[in-house]
Amino acid sequence: MHKISGYRSSDKNGEWLTMSDAAAKLGVSHVKIRRFVRDGILPAEQVMRGAPYQIRASDLEDERIKADLARKSPRIINDDNQKSLFPAI
């Protein structure tokens, strides 16, 4: 009738993803995806401020994203010379 198009990510053809879809595809939380967007690593579009982000699926292949995901979590180093904050434990 009115031919009002929905969000590109609502088509579910795999080309455009929601933040949750992108997180699921990479196996990370939406917080990680939000950080990628905030840091300018992952381009994302919004129809208007406050609207859901739309992320192009092909942008998830960016080398910076792959490098970040491949990076290991910080290691905890046991140092016998380091004093404990909680010596009673």
Question: In words, what does this structure look like?
Answer:
This protein has 89 residues and is mainly α. 28% of the residues lie in helices and 4% in strands. It is built from 3 helices and 2 strands. Strands 1-2 form a two-stranded antiparallel ribbon. The longest helix is centred in the middle third of the chain and has 9 residues, at 30-38. The mean pLDDT is 81.
Task: Lay out the secondary structure.
Elements: E1 16-17, H1 19-26, H2 30-38, E2 55-56, H3 63-70
Antiparallel strand pairs: 1-2
In short:
By secondary structure, the protein is mainly alpha-helical.
Task: Give the biggest sheet.
Answer: 2 strands, antiparallel
Percent in helix: 25-40%
* Number of strand segments: 2
Overall shape: elongated
Radius of gyration: 19 Å
Low-confidence segments? none
Percentage of β-strand residues: under 5%
The strands making up the biggest β-sheet line up spatially as: 1-2
Task: Provide mean pLDDT, rounded.
Answer: 81
Q: Structural class from helices and strands?
A: mainly alpha
What is the string of SSEs from the N terminus onward? EHHEH
Distance between the termini: 69 Å
Number of helices, counting only DSSP H or I runs of 4 residues or more: 3
Quick tags:
single chain, 89 residues, mainly alpha, two-stranded antiparallel sheet, 2 strands
